[in-house]
Design a protein that fits this description.
The protein is mainly alpha-helical and about 190 residues long. It has helices at about 1-5, 25-35, 50-60, 75-80, 85-90, 110-125, 130-140, 145-160, 180-190; strands at about 15-20, 40-45, 65-70, 130, 165. Strand 1, helix 2 and strand 2 form a beta-alpha-beta unit. Helix 6 packs across helix 8.
């Protein structure tokens, strides 16, 4: 979602900070954003910011700072209780509630096709099609890791795909065994 919003903007770059797993990337992300004030700053796990981190973010946002897109797994009342009032006001100008992938049903096919296009471009591949059976298998999956898990499954699938269409038997739910070709291609996704 952040990439789509940023792509439609006239901002210089997209800086992503993922706080869902750890707070370690916060400082590096804020430094990257400070060097590009016309950036889009996408923060996943905004509810995990402690008071000091909230203060640092507010100082960066004072004046003509970056555009901020934030995501949280908590509801708005809980977010309001965890954030400073001024930060909460800035971050909730427009709110969008997106359901978990596990509740997307067959609409996950559209999400998967969009992610396949991005991941395939990162790998220098033509994006493959997605069969109805593959969409059904994706719709039936629990997606405990939500979008990150979907990206992992699709990236593994693309790295191992031999045809022009992803079918149900092509989906790679588990990590692939290491190989030099896959390692090189996987490094491209991380860039």
């Amino acid at each position: 979602l952040a990439a789509a919003i940023h792509g439609a903007s006239r901002r210089d770059r997209l800086v992503r900070i993922d706080l869902q797993g750890s707070r370690d990337g916060l400082l590096a992300g804020l430094i990257r954003a400070a060097t590009s004030p016309r950036c889009t700053l996408a923060i996943d796990g905004i509810d995990r910011l402690d008071d000091d981190a909230q203060g640092a973010l507010l100082r960066m946002l004072d004046g003509e700072g970056p555009r901020v897109l934030s995501a949280s797994l908590v509801d708005l009342p809980t977010l309001r209780a965890r954030l400073r009032p001024e930060l909460y006001a800035l971050l909730t100008t427009i709110t969008v509630r997106t359901p978990a992938l596990s509740r997307a049903g067959t609409e996950i096919g559209d999400v998967a096709r969009a992610r396949i296009a991005v991941l395939a471009a990162d790998l220098g591949l033509d994006p493959p099609g997605l069969s109805p059976a593959a969409v059904e298998a994706l719709a039936d999956h629990d997606w405990l890791g939500d979008a990150a898990e979907l990206d992992a499954v699709l990236a593994r699938t693309l790295l191992d795909l031999e045809g022009a269409t992803v079918d149900v038997h092509d989906l790679r739910w588990e990590p692939l065994a290491p190989s030099p070709a896959r390692d090189s291609a996987a490094r491209e996704i991380g860039r």
